[in-house]
Amino acid sequence: MYNIKMEKDKVLKIIIIAGFCTIILTPLSLAIMWFFTDWKKKTKIIFSAVSAGLYVATIAIVLVVLLNPKVEQSTGRYGSASSELSFSEGGGGAGILPSGSGKGSGKNKKNDKKQSEQAASSSGGGAPVNAKRIIIPIIFFLIILALVILQNLRSKKKSNYENPYVDTKKYVLPLASDFKFPMVHYSRLELGDDEKILFVTETNQAGNEGDFVITNKRCVLFTASDGVEIPHEALKGVNSISSTVIQLTTDEDKYYAFMADSQVKYALAVLKWLGKKE
């Protein structure tokens, strides 16, 4: 079951990351991320904010740069459209001619041509500047998105761990005094009279993996080669010395249970509940 879930999460991550990379499918990736993954809420919020900014910026590029119609200059037959027209004077009938015709018309045509080139240059030169202003924030968003993806992939072993023995979602923290413990599926430990398993999780110390079991009478730490049994009355202290390690102290020795960070809070809550009962 655990392996199946890991494969499912891997497929979902590939789909989500592919959607973010295509940008167009960003809304679909966000929907899959929020409704079909168990990522941390903080990670989902960061992903949503960054990808939404990237999506909006991309649409802005399409609308402002790529789809921006070029300003066309309508020049007419005799020069600029803004050239002043007048009736010709004298000779073979009336007609409409450019106002610059006759003396000095060559000079006016040169001025008109120069002004037309300047106008075309000013209308076309703004696009690269606008593109740079939009592309820089997009690069920034991509960098942030890449960092978040890498961070999520690094912590996937911690965040994706699922207890194979008990559904930890049924442990409502803090545990009430009359809390009804869920069914724990674990057959490795032989129980005594009136003994019930309250919590079990796998231990992940490198080269010494096993299980950590809490019953209503004792704590049992199974390892790859051995096992330790600690009655509750022998416990003098229980502490979490890191996010993944619990220290059990007796008069004779100290014992350490290495487990996934998501399981530490449940193990401590059960031990604290037992301490109040005694």
Secondary structure elements and their pairing?
Elements: H1 2-22, H2 26-36, H3 41-66, E1 85-87, E2 96-98, H4 105-124, H5 126-154, H6 156-159, E3 197-203, E4 210-215, E5 218-222, E6 227-231, E7 237-242, E8 245-249, E9 254-258, H7 261-277
Antiparallel strand pairs: 1-2, 3-4, 4-5, 5-6, 7-8, 8-9
Helix pairs in contact: 1-2, 2-3, 3-5
Instruction: Give the terminus-to-terminus CA distance.
Output: 36 Å
Topology order in helix (H) and strand (E) letters: HHHEEHHHEEEEEEEH
Instruction: Please tell me how large the radius of gyration is.
Output: 37 Å
| Structural class designation | alpha+beta
- Overall geometry: elongated
Number of helices: 7
- Rounded mean pLDDT is 74
Question: In terms of per-residue confidence, which ranges show pLDDT below 50 for 5 or more consecutive residues?
Answer: 71-97, 123-127
Percentage of residues in strands: 15-25%
Helix percent band: 40-55%
Spatial ordering of strands, largest sheet = 3-4-5-6
> How many strand segments?
9
Biggest sheet details: 4 strands, antiparallel
Q: What can you tell me about this protein's structure?
A:
The protein is of the alpha+beta class. The chain is built from seven helices and nine strands; from the N terminus they run αααββαααβββββββα. The protein has a four-stranded antiparallel sheet, with helices on one face. Strands 7-8-9 form a three-stranded antiparallel sheet, with helices on one face. α1 (2-22) runs antiparallel to α2, α2 packs antiparallel against α3 and α3 packs antiparallel against α5 (126-154). The chain is elongated and about 105 Å long. It starts with a helix and ends with a helix. The model is unreliable at 71-97 and 123-127 (pLDDT under 50).
